[in-house]
Structure formats: C-alpha cells, structure tokens
Amino acid sequence: MKKLWLLVCMATVSLVSAEQTIDGEKIFDKVCASCHVKMITSKETKKIFKTLKAPPMVEVSGQLKKNIKIVEDIDDEIHRAVVIAFIKDYVMYPHLDKSMCQAIALERFDLMPSQKGKLSEAELNAVATWVYDFYVGKKF
Ligand code: HEC
Questions:
Q1: Which of 11, 14, 18, 30 could disulfide-link 85, Cβ–Cβ 3.0 to 4.6 Å?
Q2: Helical ranges in 1-140 per DSSP H
Q3: Which atom of ligand 1 is found nearest the CA of 131?
C-alpha cells in the first residue's frame, strides 16, 4: 500500500509539472512505433502476429487499464495517474517481474529494451499520457 501511494504521489507531481506543449503522439511515432503498432484489431493481429515485434499499443493500453487495480471507490484520475506512472517506469526500466503482458506474449516477444536516453522526462510524460488518453474508448 505504501508503495502504491508513493507511486501515486510521484505520478501526480510529474503530471502537474509535465510540459503540455509536447505532442505525445509524435513521440510515439518517433520512438515507439517501430515496434508497437498503433491501431489494429485483434482479428488482424492474429493474421500478422508472426511479423510483430511487440504487442500492439491499443492492446497494451487496454490491458494496463484493466490489470492495474487500485482500491475500489478511488478516483478515476488517480487510476489514470497510476497507469501513466507504470508506463513511464516500464519504458525506462522494463523487467519480466513487472510485465503485465500475458505469458504467451512474453514468450513470443523478447523483453522490451529500455528506452533510456531516447527521450527526455517531458517527452516521457507526454508519450505515457498519450498512451493512456488516446485509447480511451478504442477497442482492440
Ligand atoms: C525495440 C522495440 C520496442 C520499442 C522501441 C518500444 N517497445 Fe514497448 N515493448 C516492446 C516489447 C517486445 C514488449 C513486450 C514485452 C515486455 O512487456 O517487455 C513491450 C511492452 C511494452 C509495454 C507493456 C508492459 C506491460 O507489462 O504490459 C508498454 C507500456 C510499452 N511497451 C510502452 C512503450 C512505449 C511508450 C514506447 C516508446 C516510448 C515503447 N514501448 C517502445 C518493445 C518495444
């Protein structure tokens, strides 16, 4: 519980200080899209699965929103902040123990390489926020 609150606080601080001018989608296209397909249906994914380098981002975003659970009755904004904090952390420090990917996906794909040094703190904020917000209401 303590750990979660720390994460929430860190998330809140970093969201507040995020520069709003950076376009998260542009960062995604530049840094993430070489591995993660942006939009695709699960049906299409099955057809081209062998050619994929990483799970499609529409799937990742949906899975994280579903799998990251926090105490009931908590504010949606806090849930959003926690998911964004998870994404930010994962991009810098990917690890098997943290991965929320299904076992089958982890067998198929290698662990994501850290993107450390490829984006600034503000860019990281922007892209993680975009990964959350862009896929709201979009189905995989
Ligand atoms: C070189 C390829 C590559 C690049 C570039 C890349 N990723 Fe990944 N990513 C992967 C792979 C492979 C996985 C699945 C295995 C894993 O979870 O580590 C993954 C998984 C993830 C996950 C899911 C973690 C989980 O536990 O469900 C997130 C979130 C993610 N990537 C975000 C990003 C973002 C944001 C960027 C750009 C800033 C990015 N990735 C760039 C290869 C990449």
A1: 11
A2: 2-17, 24-27, 42-48, 57-67, 76-92, 103-108, 121-134
A3: 35
